[in-house]
Specification:
2 domains; globular; four-stranded antiparallel beta sheet; Methylamine Dehydrogenase, Chain H; mainly beta; 3% helix
Length: 382
Amino acid sequence: MIVKTRFKWSIWLIFIALSSLLIPSAYAGSILSAGVDHVCGIKDDSTLICWGDNSQNQADPPDGTFKEVSAGFYFNCALSTEGTIACWGRDTSGETSPPPGQFIQIEVGGNHACALAADGAPICWGANESSQVSYPPGPFQQLALGDAHSCGLKADGTVECWGDGSKGQANIAADTFSSITAGYQTTCGIKTDGVAICWGKTEKSYGYLTQIDYGVVGPAEGHQHDTGSPILCGLKADQTLSCPSLESVPSGVFSYVTAGGINICYDDCGSRANTQSWRFDSFACGIRENGVVACWGVNRNDRATPPVGVALKQPTGFTPPSNTCSTGEAIADIGTDLSLHINRMRYKTLTDTSILWADLVFGGQNEQGDLIWILSNYGEVK
């Protein structure tokens, strides 16, 4: 049964979020990435910038132009605009010696890294104590690396992982995903229904999110005085932040978010076995809609103090949310499955795209109880 209804003001709830839903859910490459005590990003001119701890030269990036960057414990790798890889920072296991050739994605874990060739075949290098660089043949459409494990997202949306699986982080998830990320003994992904979930040390659902990142370091076992926890940060459908383990996050619209952190000894550092001496300090950074970076959390080594007046690149396809729509009446057909077809509308995005009709699928509710629709198809005139 199809129910046809006319409504004016209620349609604004859909239009407000619509421009953010135009962003494809597929992985578009990391343009901002946090390590344990430093952050690297790609500026508007495609050059690199890093800040925070530089004790291992991890905040001293190479020259050139780049399209992706990824941070590990104390090193980073970046994918150049020509498709080659450059790595810098601490080198304990050959992690800053990438293979030659051209690639389409770069991803860094704790002390190892992996890249994807154009045909989806992976290659990995660096630390291999848990077989985290003993990669399967693929092909994959995206890689995600944790502290000592690695995962790949296949074209059919399934995930395959290898390396350390002591907490279940390398288990094969039963769901299908549009994107994945990995961190401290944990793997996470945004399912094809839009819900973000994690498995491994952290096994939790985080609701409807459009982009997520999980810190590569987390509290060690048995720490009696931990004040932090492994950190996931993500973006909601309206492009605002969701960082459940951080007490305070900035308001406003963001296009990208990354999470980091480190275990710190505050008392008797003579033995790591003294669990009362250690605390996990977490932080995160995000790119605002104007390209300016904001960071929050524990500000060790100025890692949460980004350079002033520097604009970073925006993710491919990012359009800031806009409330622009016509004052005319919209006509929508609502199906029994709560799918929504708006067959007469005028909605102008900030990129001067006029949308004439749209199909949306009901995606449930977010943390605030707002109804969410996921854009499935639309017609436009430029």
